[in-house]
């Protein structure tokens, strides 16, 4: 089984290092600017090293009528538990104006913890792998761009194969000005 941590070429990788995949998205305000700034915030957060980032993709929104989203993914090397990583992601969302009003509603920034090593975790506040990632082309396409061989631990399938099982017609590469 593929272990994403074994593929990293990181000097000084210690026993406390883990590899995580996150999804980033937004559709309120200047999404490109917000997502780029959120990525920079992640890269400069203590205990997090940005290993890879995908291109940005314009996607149709899931849920109530709202503007299209800009989405992408990142691979992080982290020196923290999944729970602490989730807290950091939620703090970054708040920093960029995220307000949780309705499920699947419009938002300035959405950061989802998708994968954490090959961990399977199901608690009331956190599920890893993300429970809907296998259904979402807007997650799988950018994730396959940067880590196509990561094995999603519940299905046992690599990300590049999971992409083939979803409708990708509403996901388009975003070209910034």
Task: Give an overview in words.
The protein is an alpha+beta fold and 177 residues long. The protein contains five helices and ten strands; from the N terminus they run αβαβββαβββαββαβ. The strands form three sheets. Strands 1, 2, 3, 4, 5 and 10 form a six-stranded antiparallel sheet that branches. A two-stranded antiparallel sheet has the order 6-7. A hairpin with a 4-residue loop joins β6 and β7 (127-128). The longest helix has 14 residues, at 82-95.
Helices and strands, with pairings:
Elements: H1 4-7, E1 18-26, H2 31-43, E2 48-53, E3 57-59, E4 69-78, H3 82-95, E5 110-116, E6 121-122, E7 127-128, H4 137-146, E8 151-152, E9 157-158, H5 159-163, E10 171-173
Antiparallel strand pairs: 1-4, 1-5, 2-4, 3-4, 3-10, 6-7, 8-9
Short description:
With 177 residues, the protein is an alpha+beta fold. The protein has helices at residues 4-7, 31-43, 82-95, 137-146, 159-163, and strands at residues 18-26, 48-53, 57-59, 69-78, 110-116, 121-122, 127-128, 151-152, 157-158, 171-173.
């Amino acid at each position: 089984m593929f272990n994403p941590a074994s593929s990293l070429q990181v000097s000084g990788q210690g026993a406390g290092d883990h590899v995580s995949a996150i999804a980033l998205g937004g559709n309120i305000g200047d999404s490109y600017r917000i997502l780029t700034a959120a990525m920079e915030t992640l890269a400069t957060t203590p205990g997090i090293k940005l290993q890879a980032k995908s291109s940005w993709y314009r996607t149709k929104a899931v849920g109530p009528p709202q503007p299209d989203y800009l989405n992408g993914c990142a691979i992080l090397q982290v020196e923290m538990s999944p729970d602490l990583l989730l807290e950091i992601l939620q703090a970054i969302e708040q920093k960029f104006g995220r307000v949780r009003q309705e499920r699947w509603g419009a938002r300035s920034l959405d950061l989802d913890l998708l994968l954490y090593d090959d961990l399977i975790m199901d608690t009331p506040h956190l599920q890893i792998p993300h429970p809907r990632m296998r259904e979402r082309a807007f997650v799988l396409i950018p994730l396959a761009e940067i880590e196509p061989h990561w094995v999603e631990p519940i299905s046992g399938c690599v990300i590049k194969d999971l992409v083939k099982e979803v409708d990708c017609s509403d996901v388009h590469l975003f070209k910034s000005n």
